Amino acid sequence: MELKPIASNMTEIRLNAGKLILFSYQTPVASWEDGKFYITADRWSNTTQRHINKWLKEFSSDRKAAEVVPQDYFTFLMGKS
User: Are strands 10-14 and 20-24 parallel, antiparallel or unpaired?
Assistant: First the structure.
């Protein structure tokens, strides 16, 4: 597992399986795995929305290219129930 701070309150974690997970503050809100982006269906703060957009833009992608999934999806990715 590799931790990469991107900006204030914005962090990316690279898991051994090649998955990337974006955290806004302490909450996982987006991921990349198997060649596809996923973003949370939950509406957090405006700052969190900017974090997601910025992260996607780093990969030359946007929200339209990402699949919207329930927040529980990211909890599951982190191995929590």
Answer: antiparallel
pLDDT digit string (tens) for 12-40? 999 877 889 999 999 999 999 988 999 99
Domain count, the chain: 1
pTM metric for this prediction: 0.90
Pairing of strands 20-24, 27-33: antiparallel
Residues 16 and 54: their CA atoms lie apart, in Å, by 23
What range defines the domain where residue 46 resides?
2-77
What span, in angstroms and rounded, lies between the C-alpha atoms of 38 and 52? 10
One-letter identity of residue 13: I
Give the pLDDT confidence of 61-77 residue by residue, as tens digits.
Answer: 778 889 999 999 998 88
Beta bridge partners of 67: 38
